Fold this protein.
Amino acid sequence: MKEPAKRKRAKSAPRSDYHHGDLANALVQTTLEIVEASGAEGFSLRDATERCGVAVSSAYKHFATRSALLLAVSDLGFEALCKRIDARVARATRGLSGVAKAEATLVELGRTYILFALDRPHLFRLMYGSAQRDDRREARPAAEVARKLVAGIDEVLRERGQDRSELSTHKVVAWSLVHGFAVMALDGLWQKRGRELDAMIDALGAAMLRSLR
């Protein structure tokens, strides 16, 4: 009696855009796709290398660990967030100046942060996961978001002619509002969308501005 044929594990088709000499970028882009689709919790280097059509050992020539590859993906997330902030702030502040422009900039920064989290939840969770807490690089993309927030707060205070000596405290308050709400929405503690979400984000922006007085 013949033994039943063993089922082979299905493999994803190799990426058609991979070419020799660009494996590091191919691995990062492939991992980004995997994370966006299903999160980073169960991700392994094998997942990415199979899609790229290379051996797992090839990945270690570019990334020493799984965490190093995920950190590179996280960097892409922060770069994307910064670009979105810049674009949306430019639109929201067109034609404004002085206090009005400074306040609109800070509010739109918070709005963009929250909407980015809701648009790309798995990537957002990776961006603010343990890999970032252990990142000691000086020029890390994650720091740029914090710099934008501090600069936004500082500009509001400067335009209002207020004391700017408590920037670090104001940063914690503002970040608590936007990041805290973003996580609440991702965790399902706030499930409303559409107009109700817009209204809540407006209310958070107003609260952030009030906290600076």
Observations:
- The longest helix spans residues 66-92.
- The domain at 74-211 is CATH 1.10.357.10 (Tetracycline Repressor; domain 2).
- The radius of gyration is 21 Å.
- The CA atoms of residues 176 and 211 lie 12 Å apart.
